[in-house]
Amino acid sequence: MHFRDLKNAPREEWEFIYSQYHLTFPIDEQRSEQQFYALFENEHTRIFGIYRNDNAMGYFVTWPMSNFLFVEFFEIYQIFRSTGIGARALEILKNEYNVLVLETEPPSMGMVAKKRIEFYERNSFRIADPDYIQPAYDSTKNSINLYLMATEAIDIDAVKSEIYSKVYGVAIG
Length: 173
Hints:
Elements: E1 2-5, H1 11-24, H2 33-39, E2 46-52, E3 55-64, E4 69-76, H3 85-96, E5 100-104, H4 111-122, E6 126-134, E7 144-150, H5 156-168
Parallel strand pairs: 4-5
Antiparallel strand pairs: 1-2, 2-3, 3-4, 5-7, 6-7
C-alpha cells in the first residue's frame, strides 16, 4: 500500500473522489462541490490517494497544523471496507505524524457511527471532546455535534481553535 499526492492529479480523479465523497458523507458534513475542489488548490491541505497495486482504495483530506494532523475526510471505498486497508492506512499516517485528530459522528447517529468509533478506537484514537460542534460549511448547512477524536492527549481548546480558524474560517466565540 502507498499514498499518492492527488493535488496534481487529473481532474477526472478529483471528480471520482468527489462522487464517492458525495455518496458517503452526510449532507451537513459535506463541502459544496466548488468548496471540495478548492481543497485541491489550497496550499494548506494535503490530499492523498490510498493505493495498492495501482488500484485506488480510498483517500485522505488532511490539514497539517501546528502540532497535529487534522484528518478532515477519510474514506475507504465501499468494496474495500472491512479488509484491514483502513487500519493500515491510518498506521502509515500515524508513523508520519505524531498526533492525528479527526471528527466523527456520535453513536446516537446509528450503528454505522458506533462501528466507526469502535474502528477508530481499535486504531489508537480516543474521544477527546464528545461535545464538539462542527461549524457549518456554509449558510445552506447546519452545525452539527460530532466527536473530536485524537491519537494522543491534546489541548482541546487550542486544537479546536486552530481547526475552526484554518479549516472552517471561523473563530471560537
